[in-house]
Amino acid sequence: MAETRPVATATAAKSSTSVQPKKKSNAISWLAPVVCILAGYIIWRFLLGDPSNFTNPDPAGGFWPKHKGPKGGLVRMYDGGIIVPLLLATFLTVITFVIERLMTITKATGTGNIAEFIRKVQYHLANKNVDQAISECDRQRGSVGNVMKAGLRKYKEMISNTEQDTEQKVLAIQKEVEEATALELPMLEKNLVFLSTIASVATLLGLLGTVLGMITSFAAMGSEGGGGAAAELSKGISEALYNTALGIGTSAISIIMYNIFTTKIDQITYGIDESGFTLTQSFASLYK
What we know:
two-stranded antiparallel sheet, 9 helices, 73% helix
């Protein structure tokens, strides 16, 4: 009878993964815009629209008091109309998500230089000191370190694995790195959509506020006539342009910060890709 050799089944080839999904709430994605809209209205209605800021306040008050005669330059923003609270809300939303993304990406970058960290791991792997390489990942404490650590655990497991050949072991390490990467990258890119959206919307809202202000100014000019109407028109245009200035300023901040964050994410992503390449090439060359 012919001798049969044990063959690793598909189930046996699938080793358990050490990568666990990160369960994090993203309540800020819907809570922050709502809070910022309320805050924008409060700033416009009760700070800019405080009766003491005007020579001829509207005592009736209400949702949109018709105050006249602003005493200061910034207070004139109040006369920009009901679009101003929305523009203030977009500005506050940008600031909120800039702070949130800055904290997240700074944490994901970890400590120290990513290229130097990868070189240290390569050195330890070249000396077949996997445990020391894992310790380097614990010290790095960033997304690159997390992915590298997941791959190193599988790397260490594959060293003692006798059921699979080198190619299968390398594929197992590569799969582990890909699974860890799939969990890290969404965390880095989350909420960036708010910055990219506001970059376009803020400018459009500013132009909308300006157009509405111009319509009101020309309507007043047509009804009054004379030199006083020209003065009112100039005043109305000046107030309407506050909408444009606020919209363009908010859009500029959003675009700049979005580009900064995407550049940082690209650097982290490159480090993650280099980590996976380091692990697979090291194992393939040392454990043939």
